[in-house]
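Quick log. Single chain, no ligands specified.
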Amino acid sequence: MDYQVAIVGAGPAGLAAALTLSRSMMHSVVIDSGRPPRNASSPFVASLPGFDKTPPADMREAVRRNILAYPYAEFLEAEVEGIQRMQKGFELSIGEDRKLSAGSILLATGMQDVLPPLEGLNACWGRSIINCPFCHGIEWQNTRWGIYAHRPEVVGAAEIYRNWTNQLTYFLAPEVSPAADRQKRLQQLCASIETDLPTRVHHDNGAITHAETPDERLIELDCLLIYPHQTQTSLVSGLNLALTDAGYVEVDEGFRTSEAGLYAAGDLVYPGHQNTPTGFHMGNMAAATIVMDICFGTLSCFQNAQPILQKTHLGSSRWHSRSHFVSAERSKT
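-> predicted structure:
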């Protein structure tokens, strides 16, 4: 076995897990493709004690130095193209002809944002187009916000957005039709409601000035909030793991997936408050679970397991009832 744990992804969850595993004297490898992370266009990380308003790359480098201060973790810039369960542990396919083995795997791959077809979006994304008021709302307090309402969840969040500004313009997609009482409430809360999505944002070097409607009207804005749809990476999609109805990897309270020995933490398991502090928390908790599972010996019983690429029965008694400390498998030994 090359490593006790392989971590796929070097975002907040993956880095936090690597640090916790290193301090637990577990040998791990952190494998990351090297592609720009989801927050690469963000000017800074927010609400992370000790790192508030630190550029994302600087924060990742600082945590990496913490990890490498211990002799237990390695970093590998490569693409994981496949994962196969072996008699004991897993085999990871790296590139065309390289393979690594690990006793367990933590998926920390994040999610892929599906950005809408809005002209000018790329130039403003992470700057004057934001996706989270908790991350960037204070920088846009008391300015003119547009809300890109192409999904129903956004319609129900107007009261939250009002915490930062009372100058709201809701752009409602035709397929998003609020109930009459919600429509009335939006009118009470918002400066205006547009019955279609903008087709273009006008900007000055990434700073929005106007949103353009399909009938070519210009709406003055300082900030536009877009809560994008998301999809799993192709690697995760190919593993046949149990997913929630919303498409996120289903995990128990210890971040175990439906496949024994395979864990997941970070944005790929959580559609809610996706940010760096949350990712750190989940990575730390997942690593602690992995250490405890190794110590209790539950990761050494793969002899009769089926290949991970084959779907298996996902009965709730098999894994949902596991606690942080005593799993169903341990109680049988």
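DSSP finds eleven helices and 17 strands in the chain.
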